[in-house]
Write a structure and sequence with these properties.
Layout: H1 7-13, E1 20-22, H2 24-40, H3 49-71, H4 76-98, H5 115-135, E2 144-146, H6 147-165, H7 224-227, H8 266-282, E3 297-299, E4 307-312, H9 313-316, E5 329-335, E6 338-347, H10 356-362, E7 369-370, E8 374-378, E9 384-389, E10 402-403, E11 410-414, E12 433-434, H11 485-501, H12 508-513, E13 517-518, E14 527-530, E15 548-553, E16 559-567, E17 593-595, E18 604-607, E19 619-620, E20 626-630
Antiparallel strand pairs: 1-2, 3-4, 4-5, 5-6, 6-11, 7-12, 8-9, 8-10, 13-14, 14-15, 15-16, 16-20, 17-18, 17-19
Length: 665
């Protein structure tokens, strides 16, 4: 008589008795592997004590339930504990990747998945997937599975993940995708790190402007296909210039590492890094400018400079010091009606600028400054605003205003990229006056476009003597009669912005990939590449989207980028152009050029008298107003037109001028 076969015995016999174990043991190994990865990552989260404790708890819990499952592999209670702990850890990981956890410091924002945390999550998932059916009685704990293979697989996954977890590159950050990685020292010259130059009018754009679907870009300044690979604005273009160790280009999406700066103690470095980390974490709660009025913040009326400061008088008088929860001032970058929070400006009330508490906090890393030349008056709503600076009024405030606030030292902490570091001052008058005198300021750098010691060197209203423009020198367009403070700031910031961003187009191949086409005028000594689709869009004076690029052909056949040529829509007349830069900026048109009717690559084929008609088979383009901004030296200034036919036509009654307000020597 044939007896029925014991299927459980048959199944068990398929696994070698020397390598067989209960099904819960591999799940325990997976849990232990995940716990060890979390243990390895504890050291890189010490800046957040609460987060550190959570990592310790996760590591201990995952290893503990693994040990329990090893000791009692046949118990459903072991399976339940194994599944429960790993399910909680897995759910927490998913939450941090999707939304962040607002009540845990260091996890407030969603983070990108990394190798270590992904492997830990995968191992936790394995533990949950195996232990859950055992705990529910749907899978017998005595089911036999191979041990060696499971252990080796977990080791292969966990060991590299543990190594990665100690590399200080986790995304448990102090800002969006902020990583603590390698040192952040970068050589740079006219790099693509944002100097946060001014924008005025709704059509003049900053980096955060979404330029239609064709070339929208995000806060990381990575432009993808529209700007060709390799030219994200967070990158630093090393052209061989050796820069001082401080200040360094600052990118909040990169590491916070202020090491190797001469004269900085470990305590000063730690305090400065922690201040930046805390500011990156906390300050974004003030990002919505429409809500900060309820907290007591008031604009000082300086939006026309490209940056608008909102001051909280109550916070200035309180006992908080360098506390991003109570920032004395918030700085927003202006784009028409839009305001983008870019910096805190901490203010120490009625404290000497050389007070040891200020000087010693960050040592040479931080430069405090004052504004002892601001003239305040009441606006139409009775709110105090800055109305003038003494520099432009013979050293005194004009009638109806008073000099105030000059005894309050202040320092910026940027949560947006800045080429002169996380504590950089603003440009021009916005830089204020520091205690360093004529020495190089720690909140400005080689290309900081200030005069190196606050203000604009006291030019007053005197006309600056003729001197050539050199973008390697500080930009100072002060002292030109008829130019307002706002116009000066706008022009200076446009030049600064162009110097820093335009080099992303230095390779003509990159420009062509983004849609630029030569108009075939290289024989004149300057060759224009135009992006025709960008002329009639709503983005103006933006070096990320310049309507035209100007190259100088070289004897070896290469081309050197020398200038942007910004263009307004073709239906704009010269007398309709906003007075952004006043007498500093002279626009022109070309109403005498005839182009080939090529839809993709029109080229200049003829020059005709003004008012004349193009020859057959050639067409005239709309005479769009345009202006150059040079990133190479030019004897006639940063906004100089070309010579001869290239100079075009200026407004009726005007003459082409050689601008004598240039980079300071």
């Amino acid at each position: 008589m044939t007896m029925g076969t014991d299927t459980s015995t048959t199944a068990a016999s398929r696994v070698s008795s020397s390598d067989a174990t209960n099904v819960l043991v591999p799940a325990a190994i997976a849990s232990a592997g995940a716990g060890l990865i979390h243990a390895a990552a504890i050291g890189v989260h010490t800046e957040h004590i609460g987060l550190t404790r959570l990592f310790i708890a996760a590591a201990v819990a995952q290893v503990a339930v693994a040990v329990l499952a090893f000791v009692r592999p046949s118990a459903r209670t072991s399976a339940a504990a194994l599944a429960g702990v790993n399910l909680v850890v897995l759910a927490a990981w998913i939450t941090t990747r999707l939304t962040g956890i607002a009540w845990i410091d260091g996890l407030q924002r969603a983070e990108a998945a990394g190798l270590a945390d992904t492997v830990a999550a995968l191992l936790a998932l394995v533990a949950v997937a195996v232990a859950t059916p055992v705990a529910l009685g749907r899978l017998r704990a005595t089911t036999r599975v191979p041990l060696t293979g499971a252990a080796l697989l977990v080791a292969v996954l966990a060991v590299p993940a543990m190594v990665a977890a100690t590399n200080h590159d986790h995304d448990h950050d102090h800002g969006e995708d902020h990583a603590h990685g390698d040192a952040a020292g970068h050589a740079h010259a006219h790099d693509t790190t944002h100097s946060h130059a001014a924008t005025v009018d709704g059509h003049v754009n900053d980096d955060d402007h979404a330029h239609d679907d064709a070339h929208a870009h995000d806060d990381d300044h990575a432009h993808g296909d529209a700007h060709a690979a390799g030219h994200a604005h967070g990158d630093i273009q090393d052209v061989g210039i050796v820069e001082p160790s401080w200040p360094r280009p600052w990118n909040p999406d990169g590491p916070i590492d202020f090491s190797d700066v001469p004269g900085v103690t470990p305590e000063q470095q730690e305090r400065a890094e922690q201040l930046v980390a805390d500011t990156l974490e906390i300050l974004p709660q003030f990002a919505d400018v429409t809500t900060i009025g309820e907290l007591g913040f008031r604009s000082i009326g300086d939006a026309n400079t490209g940056f608008e400061h909102f001051i909280n008088i109550a916070y200035i008088g309180d006992d908080h010091f360098l506390d991003p929860r109570y920032p004395e001032s918030l700085v927003y970058e202006v784009d028409g009606e839009e305001r983008t929070l870019v910096s805190a400006m901490f203010i120490a009330s009625n404290t000497p600028i050389d007070d040891p508490e200020l000087v010693d906090f960050g040592g040479p890393l931080m430069e405090w400054h004052v504004h002892d030349n601001l003239c305040w008056g009441l606006n139409d709503d009775g709110v105090p605003v800055v109305k003038a600076v003494t520099d432009n009024h013979g050293g005194v405030c004009p009638p109806g205003t008073v000099l105030a606030g000059g005894d309050n030292p202040m320092v910026h902490v940027w949560i947006a990229p800045h080429d002169c570091g996380p504590f950089a001052a603003l440009e021009g008058h916005g830089a204020g006056q520091a205690a360093t005198g004529t020495q190089q300021r720690a909140d400005q750098c080689t290309h900081d476009h200030g005069d190196g010691h606050g203000g604009h060197g006291g030019h007053g209203d005197a006309v600056v003597p003729p001197r050539p423009y050199d973008p390697e020198l500080p930009i100072d367009l002060g002292g030109v009669e008829g130019v307002s403070l706002q116009q000066q700031a706008f022009a200076e910031n446009l030049v600064a912005r162009t110097i820093h961003y335009l080099p992303q187009w230095e390779d003509p191949a990159v420009a062509e990939a983004a849609g630029f086409r030569s108009i075939g005028d290289g024989g004149t000594g300057h060759e224009h590449y135009i992006q025709w689709d960008w002329i009639d869009d709503d983005v103006w004076l933006d070096p990320n989207y310049p309507e035209s690029l100007v190259y100088e052909p070289q004897p070896d056949g290469s081309k050197t980028l020398v200038s942007a040529m910004y263009m307004l829509p073709g239906d704009t007349s010269l007398d309709e152009i906003p007075d952004w830069g006043g007498p500093l900026m002279q626009w022109h048109i070309h109403d005498d050029l005839c182009f080939t009717p090529d839809a993709d690559t029109p080229t200049v084929a003829a020059v005709i008298p003004l008012g004349g008609q193009c020859p057959p088979n050639l067409v005239k383009m709309d005479p769009a107003p345009m202006i150059h901004v040079w990133i190479r030296p030019h004897e006639c200034g940063p906004f100089a037109a070309l010579d001869g036919v290239g100079a075009g036509q200026v407004a009726e009654g005007d003459e082409h001028f050689c601008n004598h307000a240039h980079g300071a020597h």
